[in-house]
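Deviation from plan, reported transparently: pyridoxal-5'-phosphate complex.
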Amino acid sequence: MTYQYSQRVPESDEDPVGNILKVAGSPSVISFAGGLPAPELFPIAALKKVTNEVFDQSGRQALQYSAAIGHPGLRQQIVKRMGREGVDTQIENVMITTGSQQSIDLVAKMFVNPGDTVIVEKPTYLCALDVFRSYGAHIVGVEMDENGMRMDALEKAVADNPNTKFIYTIPNFQNPTGRTMTADRREKMVEIADRADIMIMEDDPYGAIRFAGDDIEPIKFYDRNERVIYLSTFSKILAPGLRLGWIVAEKNFIKKCTLMKQSADVHSDNLTQHIVAKFMEEYDINEHINKIKKVYRQRERVMMTAIETFFPKGVNYSHPEGGLFIWVEVPGDIDTKELFDTCIKHDVAFVPGEPFYPDKVIPGTFRLNYSNMSEDQIKTGIKRLGTAIKETIGVQV
Ligand SMILES: Cc1ncc(COP(=O)(O)O)c(C=O)c1O
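Because the crystal trials were delayed, the predicted structure below was used instead.
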């Protein structure tokens, strides 16, 4: 029979990114494609210990249904964490979600009617684009440079789109570019949003993983009118399989969002929330994050040195001070999907730039991840990639 799906369901069954990750997942391929954290850094022994304690001390509570807003012990820990980042907040302003992906979905669901405009960085996180499309948003991409979203371009986008509901931004070590927005642009973004009376969705999964340069306060720090909805997650600082994230926002918004979440999944896994709360009570999560930073810093350095050695002249790339990604721009009109096919023949993979663009694609762009491969694999993989780029653009190998 023919299923009469809603407009939210994409017509095409194609999953180009899924296909890339499948090919990249072959054991012979050195993959810089996924955004996977280093699994050897997951604090397995500590999580095992606190899981046993949760079962021993509060098993009945942890296995019971609970409130959609989340476990108070965990929300309190997040209040503390946010304080460290310069955001003074209260427990009523914090809700727990099933990862930032759910947070993006809930916020979009709450603001976007079909045809409403959502402003994003160009390029941006592709799974956020999928969410915005599913609610029928008109997506407007704003140019970036090395310092994040350009504020002159943002002002123009806001002026040209009076039906804008919110700006979606990833200010720290952005996915896919690895770029970070400067403090003055953060302040300016709030000023622009205030003037136009629109919301800001600040998606910050990577901010805690800064391994170079100085900390910059979140956009939420500059928020005077409760228009910034701040999202973060345990995926990159603990483990993505836990599926836990959080939202910090105005308390009435949180109440409404809790109702929406209740309809979506009743609440996030209560046992996992107890486990993570216990972990944060008993261990210093910052110590754990420092271990992650040290390893990623080293891998990023190795990748950068290999890029400088093996890529042909004229190829540009971002210089992240944290997070998981480097963005590469090969000059000319090369199709990075073709380059991807050449790379697979050389047993190395990346994600082509195309799916990260909301509209017009800039050719020759792709994303590299450095968190998930060993230093030796990074050196070998980048050498192979350099050879494939040279073959594709016609430089003597
Ligand atoms: C920018 C961005 N937002 C949200 C997410 C989703 O994270 P989570 O695992 O918390 O759902 C990711 C995951 O990679 C991401 O890169």
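The radius of gyration is 21 Å. We consider this an acceptable substitute for the interim report.
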